[in-house]
Amino acid sequence: MLDFLLFAQPGKIYPAAIAGILGLLIGSFLNVVIYRIPKMMQRESDNYIAEELGKAPPHTDRFNLIVPRSACPHCGHLISALENVPVFSYLFLGGKCSACKARIPWRYPLIELATGLLSAFLIWRFGSGLTGLATLPFAWLLLAMTFIDLDTQFLPDDLTYSLLWLGLLVNLKGGFVPLQDAVIGAATGYLALWSIYWLFKLTTGKEGMGYGDFKLLAALGAWLGWTMLPAIILLSSAVGAVVGIGLILFAKHGRDKPIPFGPYLAAAGMLALLAGKPLSQFLYGFL
Fold this sequence. Notes:
By secondary structure, the protein is an all-alpha fold. It has helices spanning 2-6, 13-52, 88-92, 107-126, 130-152, 157-170, 179-204, 211-224, 229-250, 262-275, 277-286. The longest helix is centred in the first third of the chain and has 40 residues, at 13-52.
């Protein structure tokens, strides 16, 4: 039975269904990660600044991914286990807090559902061997970073570095690409955007992107190898340009207001994982 679930070939339904259920649970946790990691970083920064100024730290209570318990941000109602069942609790509660009836953002069940469906698809696509299982944290980390970047325009080092080192470990014995290609991909991914950043800054005096984008592309290079980097950069840049122009023209988005690039890199990285060489051939042929 264990072999049937953990070492199944691609296209099997039962392992994919188990992965989907696991993905729903992980999606619920990702909502916590997306909400709390930026706050944890801000609290740490506030305490550091206070310490440097010789003042008492403003944050002394425990605040991490586990403590305190999740609560309604409007009334402080502690969320029970029955109110925290992925997707179903949202539907059962009618999208409102059970205590104060404040509206629960639709994004929470959407992230849970997306994580569940994507997890199921990846195991169906790659099987439940070691390589297939490795695609799950790849997708989970990209999802978390996408929404954190959308909210804060920041990609936390804890997540980008975790993705990078995990990619190198997965490729120790050639999980997706040879280790040499993974190492070169990590270095090339970082240096590619680092070079563009400094070229743009020296030319215009402005910062075109953040260092988190360098680290994310380095992590994608560690997973998929250096040969996939041109396709990832081309695809993410093209989609980012189209979306950016659309926001400026139709959503009155200011030209000087930055647009996070991480979500486009994450989406391009996921497509590169799924499509691989056909994606590269299509983009190069189109150009």
